[in-house]
Amino acid sequence: MEGLLPKLPLADWIDVLVDWMTNTFGGLFDGISTGVDFFVEGIVAGLGFIPSIILIILLSLLAWKVCNIRIALFALLGLFLIDNLGYWEEMLETLALVLTAVLISVVIGIPVGIWASQSERVRQFVTPVLDLMQTMPAFVYLLPAIFFFSIGVVPGVVASVIFAMPPTIRLTVLGIKQVPADLIEATEAFGSTTKQRLLKVQLPLAMPTIMAGINQSIMLALSMVVIASMVGAPGLGTEVYRAVTQIKTGVGFEAGLAIVVIAILLDRITQNIGKKKEGGTV
Q1: Phi, psi (degrees; rounded to nearest 5) at 178
Q2: Which residue intervals of the chain are DSSP H helices?
Q3: Could you tell me if residue 16 is left (phi over 0), alpha (psi between -120 and 50 degrees) or otherwise beta?
Q4: What CA–CA distance (Å, rounded) separates 35 from 227?
Q5: What global pTM score does this model have?
Q6: Is 179:256 a contact under the CB 8 Å cutoff?
Q7: Cα–Cα dist 83/66, whole Å
Q8: String of b and e for 246-266 (b: at least 16 CB within 10 Å)?
Q9: How far apart are CA 58 and CA 50, in angstroms?
């Protein structure tokens, strides 16, 4: 069968599309790049303005308030270890990248999820797109991001958004669709509008599931931010990448341990926020 049909020039088509988008929407991409860069630098500057010991105590108190004393002690010891090893600035940069990517994912993902939950046609269109976003190798996202936004912070954030957004959309749809049908019928019987039903019944009941989606997006964004160090994104991922290229096992272990601490803290805090939301809706 080989050679019977000519090869489709798919790669050439994609290159032409990327070139056209770069030339046509260059101003838009420059504006996005400036805004994202400013936002990330603002988070880093704001967190960096606070002395590390004060920020460690504040984050530990937050973990105690949201979770429990064990997670608070883990936060205290883990963050102190990161500071002691000399990765505090890199940790703040990684945290800023993750927070920016997750914020964009939530701002876009939740409205898209709500729209898809209310429209079967939209859901049929969105589902295969999400399948593509989740199954495409993560490194592939770095290529168009570099073309559109050069190298540095912005392509890392953009690639992280694309990689991390699907769970937020999927679980928003799932949470809203799982609202019991008898409650929906009751709201309709009392004459509630679609907006009232959505804001006062469906979204509050779906909030624990939506928070689970945000939790997954945070974890995916963190993993992608590390990969994005290959295109110049700053943070702990840069230290890991440098350790791999220079075969420095000890440095790689230290930076990897700092990433693990941040991942566990973000995971536990968002999980417990979701549980509190679930407890509040019962």
Answers
A1: -85, -5
A2: 10-24, 26-49, 52-66, 69-85, 88-118, 120-135, 142-149, 153-177, 181-189, 194-197, 203-227, 236-245, 249-281
A3: alpha
A4: 22
A5: 0.83
A6: no
A7: 23
A8: eeeeebbebbbbbbebbbebb
A9: 10
Average pLDDT over residues 223-243: 81
CB 266 within 8 A of CB 258: no
Contacts for 72 with CB less than 8 Å, ≥ 6 apart: 60, 61, 63, 64
Do 266 and 99 touch, CB atoms closer than 8 A? no
- Give the end-to-end CA distance of the chain in Å, rounded to a whole number: 61
Measured CA distances, 240 to 74, 90, 278 (Å): 23, 11, 37
- The residue type found at 221 is A
Which residues does 51 contact at the CB level (< 8 Å), separation at least 6? none
Q: Which residues have a Cβ under 8 Å from the Cβ of 236 and sit 6 or more positions away? A: 87, 90, 91, 93, 94, 226, 255, 258, 259, 262
Place of tokens 């779906």: 206
CB 156, CB 225: distance < 8 Å: yes
Q: Supply angle C-alpha 211, 268, 70, rounded to 5.
A: 150
Rounded Cα gap, residues 213 and 151, in angstroms: 29
Residues 146, 140 contacting (CB under 8 angstroms): no
Note the pLDDT of residue 277.
56
What confidence category does residue 275 fall into, taking pLDDT thresholds of 50, 70 and 90?
Answer: low
State yes or no: pLDDT of 276 exceeds 90: no
Core vs surface per residue 83-102: b (16+ CB within 10 A) or e: beeebbebbbbbbbbbbbbb
Tell me what percent of the residues of the chain surpass a pLDDT of 90: 13
What gap in Å lies between CA 164 and CA 154, rounded to an integer? Answer: 15
